[in-house]
Amino acid sequence: MMNIAVAQSGGPTCAINASLVGVFKESLKEASIDAIFGSVNGIEGIIQNHMINLKSMILTNDDMELLKQTPSTVLGSCRYKLPDWQEDEEVYRKITDTLKQRNIGAFFYIGGNDSMDTVNKLSEYFKNTGLDIKVIGIPKTIDNDLCITDHTPGFGSAAKYVATTMKEITRDSIVYSIPSVTIVEVMGRHAGWLTASTAVLHAMGETAPHLIYVPEVKFSLDNFLRDVRQELSKHKAVIVAVSEGIEVPDGVQSGLVDNFGHKYLSGIGKYLEDVVRNEIGCKVRSIELNVMQRCSSHLGSRTDIEESESIGAAGVRCALNGQTGRVMVFRRISDMPYTVSIDSADAGKIANQEKFLPKKFINSAGNNITDQALEYFLPLIQGELNLVMEHGIPKHFAIHESVLK
């Protein structure tokens, strides 16, 4: 018999709790697994020995279903960068002490690029020290920028929300007779997957968004103004989708960075709003979707949630098969009918890497997305959740705050 531990890390999504349910539910089936521990605030919880017994928190099938529709990380999160163990082994000794004390034979880390760095470093440390603890990564990120996997849990729901919001913004913007420009800032530091996904509206006959700018294309302010003027000559209301990470002049963004060296980004939408107002002079506004695009589970994709649970369960099976240092990935078999399989890949080939939009998804002018991309995006946003409602709004599963302190 052994116990297992699971933790969540990085930015919240609509689907990260569904992956937790996948790990939890699959572990309940295994006679070789006894206690299922949740680490509070990611790897920090293991370092500090702050663990909770999930079997005492998730009691029924209804709890699991409710948790699947609950956005964000029910166990809390962190952005903690493990040092290389050859340079600083102390934190690894603390992790080892916690895992040994609780008889944990497998650790599942649900997160993005940086979390897979933790998976890679821990698995290598355990191998080098002869400790038989399996470490498996469960992918998560709305940025959809993890290598090898076809897509990441959380992306489909975020794309569904962003596209829906863009459609509603379009309806709002076309009601007036005067020309206008609306600039919508979408998350995406180096990769423009989420911004590009707004192009799914084109499959529904919408002309908006009329312009889409992603970090994969070098941004030119002169070209941007030319593009906006051209679209204003054809459309009364021009809708622009722009990634937060496109190249901008110094001073537009804060310049601050997190523990992994990533810049805190925001402000490009407001900057471009001012440029349009000063250079073109029409009515203009900018909208920053900010954290809403990560956790709007009321517009969650059923495909995303179901796949997120499945890939969490597959992670458990992977560990029980004796594998470690692996990250679970989706392999797309076909677009129509949409079919994927679940496999695993070496964490070292995913950690600290980024997957960018392929060139075939970006038009020749670099200001919009091709129809070929729609075949990739559309399957990921399909299906709706049968939400449990309370007093007219979606009900969420929560672990009492006192337990998490």
Could you describe the 3D structure shown?
With 405 residues, the chain is of the alpha/beta class. It has 13 helices and 13 strands. It has helices at residues 16-28, 43-47, 61-68, 90-101, 113-129, 155-173, 193-196, 221-232, 268-279, 292-295, 302-320, 372-377, 401-404; strands at 2-8, 33-39, 51-53, 104-111, 134-139, 180-186, 211-213, 237-243, 283-288, 326-334, 339-346, 389-390, 393-394. The strands form 3 sheets. The chain has a 7-stranded mixed sheet with strand order 3-2-1-4-5-10-11, with helices on both faces. The protein has a 4-stranded parallel sheet with strand order 7-8-6-9, with helices on both faces. Helix 1 (16-28) crosses helix 11.
> Termini distance?
29 Å
Q: What spatial order of strands do you see in the largest sheet? A: 3-2-1-4-5-10-11
Mean model confidence by pLDDT:
94
Q: Which descriptor suits the 3D outline?
A: elongated
Helix count equals 13
Whole-angstrom Rg? 22 Å
What profile does the largest beta sheet have? 7 strands, mixed
| Helix-strand topology string | EHEHEHHEHEHEHEHEHEHHEEHEEH
Question: Percent helix among the residues?
Answer: 25-40%
Secondary structure class reads alpha/beta
Oligomer: single chain
